[in-house]
Write a structure and sequence with these properties.
It is a single chain. The chain has 431 residues and is an alpha/beta fold. It contains 13 helices and 15 strands. The longest helix is centred in the middle third of the chain and has 23 residues. The radius of gyration is 24 Å and the shape is elongated.
């Protein structure tokens, strides 16, 4: 069994997996007046059930859903395409009320029968305690399976949240007030469970190791595109994944150009000695994201203004981590960072780019709109959040300074998840 499946199997008494912050999930439904939710977003389904489909792509019709009643949250139901039944069974996840439906693999030129489900039940699945219920609840289309699940938990009518509201509206359910549940799920995901925190720490350590190995592989003449592929190779060796077009996010203008650009993955010019590479790398392990990195001065050390900026960046990071306590607002932290740059003698603190976001199953994990309908732009930190801190002072290829630290929010301030400190990396590579 996978490590994810093992973690979930250890807690069979919980209605949802160990990744789910169940009290916040219920709190989110109460605050938004939701009688229940129908969850179909792949990441949210994983969050609730531990199920990660092997073949489904993000813009395809959803072949699964988790149905939750606020009034009976201990009785979640999973509706799933018949062809995923044995995959779900192998997970041995926390949701045991499984409602399969006849899906795309079954022929349209033959009449559907209850026996169709048997095609997808292997011997280990047949031994599961819940399989008799799955057979009994087999339906010939997803809507019928969903209607049965909603009826079973008392949600034939009421206000039901959908994390994909378009899906909810297309169902045209009589007596149901379909509402948007995107922010309800983000509210739950914002504060991490211990299992999530452990995964995020492991993901950050993987990213750090991949960056260090990539830096050591630099030789004169290596291009940005090659470095991106080198990084992806190390990630793969360490057990992680990056998505197309690559894991390295920042672009790197040449010479005196100080523009802020993102990488396309197609830059095939050489990485020259003395260049300030801004490592900001993205990827996932067990679907949980890593982020961040810092400046690497290729085969050299910071010189002149860059040396001052390196020292200032370290001081700003230390000051801001101490202030990243529950209740701190993003605008307050940005103002503090800018003030600290000025105190360090940086001429124009307003040029500094200081920003934050959540981190977990995505690089968001923060509600965009609060339960009272307010835009959640200047949001507050809460204990248990994981929040990357981004510091960038723009400049030429030999001056820019960048640091992105991944921070766990604790009662006495931010705890850095990287182990390498705040100073720029220097030297490295193979001559």
């Amino acid at each position: 069994m996978s490590s994810v499946g093992t973690a979930l199997a250890k807690t069979p008494s919980q209605p949802f997996g160990t990744y789910c912050n169940q009290p916040r999930l219920i709190q989110a439904m109460e605050a938004r007046g939701l009688d229940g939710m129908v969850i179909t977003n792949p990441l949210n389904v994983y969050y609730l059930s531990g199920f990660n489909s092997i073949a489904h792509k993000s813009d395809e019709p959803r072949p699964y859903a988790v149905v939750i009643s606020r009034h009976a949250p201990e009785q979640p139901i999973m509706v799933i395409a018949d062809y995923y039944l044995s995959t779900l069974a192998a997970l041995q996840g926390p949701i045991t009320d499984i409602r399969p439906f006849r899906a795309v693999m079954m022929p349209m030129d033959l009449p559907p029968t209850a026996a169709d489900i048997e095609r997808f039940i292997d011997q280990p699945t047949a031994a599961q305690n819940w399989i008799s219920g799955a057979r009994e609840n087999y339906r010939f289309d997803m809507k019928s399976a969903l209607l049965g699940a909603l009826s079973s938990v008392g949600l034939k009518t009421g206000r039901i949240g959908f994390d994909d509201l378009g899906f909810g509206l297309r169902l045209r359910l009589d007596g149901v007030d379909a509402a948007d549940a995107y922010d309800a799920m983000m509210f739950a995901r914002a504060v991490k469970t211990p299992a999530e925190m452990q995964l995020l720490q492991q993901a950050t350590a993987l990213n750090e190791a991949a960056i260090e190995r990539s830096r050591a592989d630099w030789t004169p003449g290596i291009t940005w595109r090659e470095m991106d592929r080198i990084y992806a190779g190390h990630v793969n060796d360490l057990g992680g994944f990056v998505r197309d077009p690559g894991g390295m996010v920042w672009g790197h203008p040449r010479g005196a150009d100080s523009a802020l650009v993102l990488s396309t993955g197609n830059d095939n010019t050489p990485i020259e000695a003395g260049t300030h590479v801004m490592f900001d790398c993205h990827g996932t392990t067990a679907l949980y994201c890593w982020d961040g990195g810092k400046t690497w001065v290729v085969d050299d050390e910071p010189q002149g203004l860059a040396k001052q900026l390196d020292g200032a960046t370290q001081r700003v990071a230390e000051t801001m981590l101490a202030a990243m306590k529950p209740g701190a607002r993003i605008s307050e932290l940005q103002a503090l960072g800018r003030q600290t740059y000025r105190q360090c003698g940086v001429a124009d603190g307003d040029q500094a780019i200081i920003f934050f976001h959540g981190l977990g199953l995505s690089h968001m994990d923060i509600e965009t709109t609060t339960a009272d309908g307010q835009a959640n732009v200047d949001w507050c930190l809460e204990a248990g959040m994981v929040v990357p801190l981004h510091l960038l002072y723009p400049g030429s290829a030999q001056e820019r300074l960048w640091l992105e630290e991944v921070v766990a929010i604790e009662s006495d301030g931010g705890r850095p998840l990287f182990s390498w400190g705040f100073a720029a990396q220097t030297g490295g590579g193979r001559a």
